[in-house]
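Bumping with the actual sequence this time:
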Amino acid sequence: MNRPNILIFMTDQQRGATVLPEHPAQTPVLDRFRKQAVTFRNAFCPSPHCCPSRATFMTGLYPSEHGVWNNVCVQNALSTGLNKGVRCWSEDLTESGYRMDWNGKWHVSWDEGPDNRGFNVHSISAGARHQRQGVMGWDWSDYQTLAEKNEDLETARHPGEILRPGWGSYTHYGIDENPYGDMAHVQSAIEVIRSRDTGKPWCHYLGPLGPHDPYKVPQRFLDLYDIDSIGLPPNFDDRMEDKPALYRRTRDRFDQLDPAEHREAIRHYYAFCSYEDYLFGLVLDALEESGQADNTVVIYCSDHGDYLGEHGLWCKGLPCFRGAYEVPLMIRWPARLAAPGRTEESFVSLADFAPTLLELAGVKTDRTFSGASLLPFLRDEEVSEWRDAVFTQSNGNELYGIQRSIMTRDWKLVYNGFDYDELYDLQRDPHETRNLATEPQYAEIKRALYQRLWRFASEHGEQGISAYIMTGLAEYGPMEAFRHSV
């Protein structure tokens, strides 16, 4: 069997729409790549946060199954790594004879690194403790130092800056000629590609950190965009009065930026996507020059999205809007792709990577995954049975709160354990501006969605099912999983 090589280029915090042809982000490399690949327009992560989503990518499981709920290397981490016994697809590929190479961002576990899961590590960020990854963020000594310098007493706010008394100021965008050191990871990966012994199949993961906030980019990529051509999202003026208070409180911080600054931030984000596109092009060129491109499956994806000014929000967090959950996904397979240039509309998930990669590598396993193989789509086969809904699981990005959601083509229900629920009619309200959860005429729709949400929960090891009077706050509880549909 001629098993293909596998090259994965996984960006950080890139919205799925930014790789589509109608999007204003300038991505000439991806424009060419799209004509040779299958593009999945509806790809989603399970949680709008690096660690749980990357853990899902590596295991094919949801957070309730793999055990990573939040940032694994912060002081108040809920968990610092995968549940005992959880296996990564990289271990299967290693045992089957693949050479495994790693460059860039890990952020799956603080207890283990990619070297513990079969990879040869050439460069790494957000690694494990044994790879000198310390606790992320500030500690008390940092705050004391800033307080002694009166760092947060500045009253004049600079463009793109958000003042935060007692926390230190935050600058949302700017210029950096080598943001996050991504070029070093790319150059290291290119060296590996050029020097690799092609006597055995290989899998190479490359994870740059852009376009993650703050959006600081090389000047020449910012110069690609005229600020006058940058518009605000159609739901930018949604004050979210009918949504959880945490959403509004989050927006309050970003409301320090005036509309012109929001547009400038969007410009910087687009420029960051263009920069990552450029880096991807360098890798593709090296692969082509090595003579290995024809037998290499190339995957372009990301771990989660970004609000990008929608509802006045930025970055990612508990506000359960599509922008934080959608991710790019494009797959090229020169030797076997049945219909290059095709766009697929089906709902797909980061949980689909594990079964897909194992099938690509010809590895059989009796493990059960939450995802399913995408190979039928790559072969352009008729897929008669496929998911018609997307489910999400979040316990919050260090500012914790239980949240679960279900999204179909028509409806989206968000169960917020920390506030009231959300219900959106996606056909009439695709930008999620009107919350219908309290309107009585939608009660049957809401209950039917709750039943599906709880059925998914029962099938995927959900543990947030306490019936205690102070915690069992969902409008309809777990028994709905076992009732007949309303």
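The tokens above came from a reply further down the thread. The longest strand covers residues 37-44.
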